[in-house]
Amino acid sequence: MVERYGLLPRVEHYGCIIDLLGRLGLLKEAQGLIERLPPIKRDATAWRALLAACRVYGDVKLGERVNRVLVEMDDQHPTDSILLSGTYAIAGRLKDLGSLQVTTEEQLDAKFKWKSLGKEESRVKEAGCSMIEVDHEWEENIDGLELHATMFPWQKKQ
């Protein structure tokens, strides 16, 4: 990258590559890349991208390892346990979900309760937001809220 484009690879570049490897199912390769990175570029975002791929492919063993790394880095985020719980579900290990409970607060925040490393914790996950342009107007959707009826007029309600 330096020779061809004159750019020094930054954390974001490595994160994209790790995400791509994960999406391709090359989890071990993604893990190896993270572990070969200099510590300054081995951030929680890279590990979290790998954890998301573990959920997609149901790789519980690697998912648990990645979660432990994030705990050791002291850089936990509510998404981590949600991704790990999804990994258990995809792998058919529902008994390992612990006590995952979801409640809605004002339809914008969701509180997740789970067991993490043997102790019960609670985290708040902020709602996601997306925007789409329809007929030169921007429509906004907040996760968990029903989509505006005019956003997707080609979709008929059944």
TrEMBL record:
InterPro entries: PPR_At4g14850-like_plant, TPR-like_helical_dom_sf
Taxonomic superkingdom: Eukaryota
GO BP annotations, alphabetical order: RNA modification
Gene Ontology MF term list: RNA binding
UniProt protein name: Pentatricopeptide repeat-containing protein
